[in-house]
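Example record for the data management plan.
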Amino acid sequence: MSDDTRWSSAETLSRLSRQEFGEDLSTLVAEKLRNDDGKRGLWNCHRDYCGHGLIYQDSQYRLVEVNDSSASEGKVIRAFENTGEFVAWLGRQSDFSLSGIDESEREFHSSEPFNVNNQRITRARLRDYVHDCTASLLPFRNFLFAVDLEFRFLVQEQGFSKVRPRMNGDECVVRYRMPSVARITVMTELQSRPFTTITFDADNDIQAANDASLDAFAKTRDVDWEPPAYISCSHSESDYRQYFRQYADLLRHQFSDLLQPHTIDSPKTVEAPTDPQVCPSESPVGKSRIWGAVIASAALFLLVTELRYFKSADIPAATGSLRGNFGKLVFLGMPCVMLAIGVLQAFVGVKFRHLDPTFSALPTGRRIKLGLGTVGTVVAAILLAAYL
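Corresponding structural encoding:
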C-alpha cells in the first residue's frame, strides 16, 4: 500500500469505529441540514475528488459524491424525503459502515483503495458540522454536543434561534436568543465548571435581568432550587448532558411563561403597574442594585469615619510595624472590601453571595470593564474620603 492511499491501509481501517452514530446526533444533523437548505451542508471544498457529503436539496436529504467542491451537482448516492427515515438510517451507520470497506453496505462499498475511507462521512465530521466547529472549538466538542442536545427544546418548542458557537478569549460561548424576549448564554473554559446566564428583555417582562446567573435568578421562582453539582473531572459528553439537563428542566418548569413573546395587551403587562409583586422597582435585580448602593454608601461612611479617626498621616505609619498594627490594617481595609462588594452588586444586579458564579460567567470583556470600574471607584472613594 503506497503512502498515497495510507487512509485505506489495513492498520487505518482496523481502527475505524463500528459504534453507531445514534438517534441524537442524527436528529441534530437533520435539523441543521434543513436549516441550511442547500446553501450550506456537510462536504469538503477543494479541487478534484472531495469524498462524500450530506445536503438538503429539493426537500430531500441526500448523500452525494462531491467533486471540485460542488455538492449540489454531485452524484446522489442515497436520498430520503422523510426526516424519520433519514434519521433512522443515519443513526444506524458508523465510521466503518460508511467507509466503503463494509461489503454489506453495497451502496458505499468500493474495491478501489483510493475511494475507501477517503473523506467519507464520520462521527467527527458530523459533530463538527452540527457545532459549526472551527479549529479553536475542537477541544469543546463534548460541551457543545451536550448543550445542543439538552437545550434544543428552546429552538424546537420555544422558537429561539441558536447563535453559532464562538470563542471569547479562553471561553467557549453558546447563545440562544429570541429578540424582545430573552437570551440564554452557556459558557465554559477548559477543565472548568460551565456557567449559564440569562437576560430578559425589560420591554417584554417586568422581571428584567441582564446577564444574571441562572442559578441566582432561579431562586426568585423556586426558593428550593440548588445548583447542580459538577464534580466530574472527565468532562465527558454524558457528564455535561446530565449537568445541563437539570438547567433545561428548570427552564421548562419555572420559566416557560417568560420564554415566550408577550403582547402589549397581555394581562401580565397590563396588570404590572398595579401589582406590587411585579413592580419594576420590586424586581429581584432592582432590589439587589439598591442594596448594593446601600452597602457602598455605608462603606464610604465608615471609610470617612476611619480616616478622620486615624488621620491621614497615621496611615503610612501603620505599615511600619506589621506585627503591631496588623489589626489596624485589617480594620482599615474592611470598608474598602465592602465598598468593592457594594459597587459590584450595584453594577451586576445580583446578591453578594451569588457574585462569584455570576461574575465568572460574564464575558471576558465585561469582566474587565467591571473590574477596572470597581477598582477605579474604590480608589476615587478613598481619595474623596481622605479629603472630606
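Summary line stored alongside the record: Strands lie at 49-57, 60-67, 70-80, 161-168, 171-178, 182-188, 195-200, 209-213.
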